[in-house]
User: Which sequence fits this backbone?
């Protein structure tokens, strides 16, 4: 029996994939796996039973990745599973920033009792006029799952699109429309574009990237969209830029006390991934990955350990999460040889400071062997799945 706990509501489409040997737990105590969306896990303690954390979504800044790795807990996310939901809301954000749709709707609500509203609307509407996005320049910073979809969609709406991503993956590059201009620096985007949208993770080098210096390079009246994370934008500098009119509109999916209520900020309550489809996609992918890891030891879409897949297990499988230091495999194989255990198949992969070794064995592989392996320095967690 495996136990899982959901720290946020997770779509039933995913949870229904847990088979009878999985039981939901009302808290994290004794859970083998935790499923989470945006809940912060930084202040939580993890007990020894926890083996996997699955983020049903993309951003993992709510999870202490390093601490999890040190405790032998594999953290997964679900790349691309909610990208279309975000893309559609970004397009909506560009339109809301270009036409005063919100002002117009508010006017109608405020005048709902007016028996002459049809005629009065024709006079009032000039206050809510705007511009079109067709022909305007859009800069997309971060060409991952979301950035590529936004960039490609914007070209179909007649925008001239510039993309910047110094670490773009081969997969993303293949999916990117050939009509996108390749910006070689972020400054090129800042200087050229009428609309700028950021789709990068919250990392040390991206936090605060939109600040008074980057804004000073931008065109007067630029529109900035942030559906990635609040910390990417320096709030104080953004408020100043909105007040001065340098930034015409700031559309953000992240309400903070500093930005909520500021004139010309269009603030959405983190709705990018809140669609039936995105919630289902993320949950299905998260549950699939957790099951494959618990049952077969396979790691797919981890953010703190290397991906490693030996397919469906048909004999005992020993899995070892360990530090990426010399002579680990030598010690594992020597120990198994000493116990007269024959290795049928084996894989080792590394990612940064951490590594993973999977060993299928023809015989043996019991708790005593697991304890011996666990005692090797720099081993983080050993499991024998049989
Ligand atoms: N508002 C919402 O509901 C959602 C927000 N997000 C946020 O959006 C972010 C992006 O999501 P995805 O596109 O799915 O992730 P992704 O991992 O597919 O793409 C991120 C891209 O950013 C690029 N990048 C990293 N550092 C960069 C830098 N300094 N300059 C330019 N590019 C850089 C990477 O190379 C990668 O291509 C997530 O990390 C998350 O914070 C994601 C999903 C939903
Ligand atoms: O689960 C959510 O609604 C948040 C999605 C998100 O921000 C992400 O996937 O990074």
Assistant:
């Amino acid at each position: 029996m495996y136990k899982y706990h959901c720290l946020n509501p997770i779509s039933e489409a995913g949870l229904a994939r847990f088979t009878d040997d999985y039981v939901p737990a009302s808290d994290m105590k004794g859970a083998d796996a935790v499923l989470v969306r945006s809940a912060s896990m930084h202040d939580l303690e993890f007990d020894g039973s926890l083996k996997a954390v699955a983020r049903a979504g993309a951003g993992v800044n709510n999870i202490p990745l390093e601490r999890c790795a040190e405790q032998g807990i594999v953290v997964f996310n679900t790349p691309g599973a909610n990208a279309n939901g975000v893309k559609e809301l970004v397009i909506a954000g560009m339109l809301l920033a270009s036409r005063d749709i919100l002002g117009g709707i508010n006017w109608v609500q405020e005048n709902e009792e007016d028996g002459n509203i049809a005629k009065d609307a024709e006079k009032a509407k000039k206050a809510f006029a705007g511009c079109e996005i067709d022909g305007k320049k859009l800069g997309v910073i971060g060409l991952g799952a979301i950035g590529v979809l936004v960039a490609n969609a914007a070209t179909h709406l007649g925008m001239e699109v510039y993309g910047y991503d110094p670490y773009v993956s081969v997969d993303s590059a293949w999916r990117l429309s050939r009509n996108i201009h390749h910006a070689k620096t972020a400054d090129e985007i800042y200087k050229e574009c009428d609309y700028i949208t950021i789709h990068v993770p919250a990392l040390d080098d991206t936090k605060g990237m939109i600040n008074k210096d980057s804004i000073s390079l931008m065109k007067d009246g630029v529109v900035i969209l942030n559906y990635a994370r609040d910390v990417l934008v320096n709030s104080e500098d953004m408020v100043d830029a909105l007040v001065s009119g340098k930034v015409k509109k700031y559309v953000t999916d992240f309400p903070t006390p500093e930005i909520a209520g500021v004139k010309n900020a269009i603030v959405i309550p983190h709705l990018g991934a809140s669609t039936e489809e995105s919630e289902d996609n993320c949950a299905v992918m998260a549950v699939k990955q957790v099951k494959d890891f618990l049952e077969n030891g396979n790691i797919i879409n981890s953010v703190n350990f290397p991906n490693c897949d030996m397919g469906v297990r048909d004999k005992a499988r020993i899995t070892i999460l360990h530090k990426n230091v010399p002579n680990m495999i030598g010690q594992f194989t020597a120990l198994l040889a000493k116990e007269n255990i024959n290795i049928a198949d084996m894989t080792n992969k590394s990612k940064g400071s951490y590594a993973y070794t999977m060993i299928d064995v023809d015989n043996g592989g019991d708790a005593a062997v697991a304890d011996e392996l666990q005692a090797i320095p720099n081993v983080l967690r050993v499991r024998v799945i049989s």
Remarks:
- The domain at 1-82+275-304 is CATH 3.40.50.720 (Rossmann fold).
